[in-house]
Amino acid sequence: MTNSFNPAGWYSTTLGSIATWGSGGTPSRKNPEYYGGDVPWVKTGDLGPKVLSTASEYITELGVKKSSAKYFPKGSVAIAMYGATIGKTSILGFDATTNQACGVGLPIPEITDSKFLYYLLRNEKDAFIAKGKGGAQPNISQTLIKEHSIALPPLAEQKVIADKLDTLLAQVENTKARLERIPQILKRFRQSVLAAAVSGRLLGEGEAYKLNWPSLNLAKLCISAFDGPFGSKLKSSDYTSTGIGVVRLENIKHLYFDRTKKTFVSEEKYHSLEKNKLEKDDVLFSSFVDEEIRACLFPFDNQRFINKADCFCLRIDTEMAVPKFFLYVITSQFAYTQIKEHVQGVTRPRVNLKILKSLEFLVPPISEQKEIVRQVDQLFTQADRIEQQVNNALARVNNLAQSILAKAFRGELTEQWRKDNPDLISGENSAEALLERIKAERAEAKPAKRSRKASA
């Protein structure tokens, strides 16, 4: 059906009319003979790249025979039908089987091709998500996909659209990749700033000047240092919906306090743990150490909080050190190198408070600490501003990809092309004529049903 809102030559139809659809299955996990073979078995988690070059898992021929898994040829287009991955799409770059969560469309020759169908499905992702049924695991079905309405351009225009999208979306992806590298560059910049801060180079004095700073262990810099309550002293069942705040590992990030996760205990419980009361500018340190040190200042004044186990509180003697200067010291690469030497455990690498208190650091005079903090804050503010600009740009780039797809499937990218090539979108070359011709050819090729003769 030609829609008045469609561009000239376009035709309203369904996905079921432009591709042959199917889905796969999962061999029984109880039988090891079904897995570890040489048959690619694609799952929804594999989807996403434009052309899928490999499968994350392989099954055996026996697994194919003993399940509803089936082969789909190279060039088929797979789309995720279940859960959070709904709408993720890839062209199969090889003959493969799939699980039942993948809907697979094989483009009908002379109606469309793999590349156009891939981009069309990408454009319809939000519509599929909106149609997803179910609660925690919404899903769409093959029937829904096949019945999904689309506007189909003539075949010649489809190829132009796909080529334009190749070019434009490649530019978007290149821009996105460059932007995504910037946060890592800024992370290295911040670490270099901290390295300069703890070495004296930030003051312009160089390494030689650092040697005049006295070396003190952490225990001497702290008025107190304590871990949170363990075991029965503070259990999950003690948590309440409101009350006195509890600092947990999730709150302690690298150089900032994350208030997203909120945990409370009752007034009564707080009084039994009051020795764990936190004060503004306490240095909070996560005992778990992997690729970076997670430590931050406790930011609240006149708010009652306690710390949980493995959340160390380091209360700095302000006559000896500026808390923020010490935070910068403890999160620097210099401190990280020392701390990693004492980390224990593999799955949850951690350092204990005794080891932490024994570590030694070079401590400049208070006046120099304040100047270092001022300069670090200034440089970090500049880095934060750049990072925010990058995040804003990334958001615009992510929206740009969908905007380009939407323009393509409204006919806006090929508006001038249609004006220049009216013969390629009209008459026998229109999408409507193309679909009718293929439909007629299929009907003619379909073998006639033989009628049963009445028995004598």
Give structural notes.
This protein has 14 helices and 21 strands. It has 456 residues and is an alpha+beta fold. Among the domains are: 11-154 and 425-444, Adenine-n6-DNA-methyltransferase TaqI, Chain A, domain 2; 214-363, DNA methylase specificity domains (Adenine-n6-DNA-methyltransferase TaqI, Chain A, domain 2). Mean pLDDT is 91; it is low at 452-456.
Residue share in β-strands: 15-25%
CATH architecture of the domain at 11-154 and 425-444: Alpha-Beta Complex
- Mean pLDDT figure: 91
Could you please say which CATH topology of the domain at 11-154 and 425-444 applies here? Adenine-n6-DNA-methyltransferase TaqI, Chain A, domain 2
Strand order of the largest sheet: 2-10-7-8-4
* N-end to C-end Cα span: 49 Å
User: Mind telling me the CATH superfamily name of the domain at 11-154 and 425-444?
Assistant: DNA methylase specificity domains
Pick out the low-confidence regions: 452-456
How would you describe this structure in keywords?
four-stranded mixed sheet, Adenine-n6-DNA-methyltransferase TaqI, Chain A, domain 2, five-stranded mixed sheet, 456 residues, alpha+beta
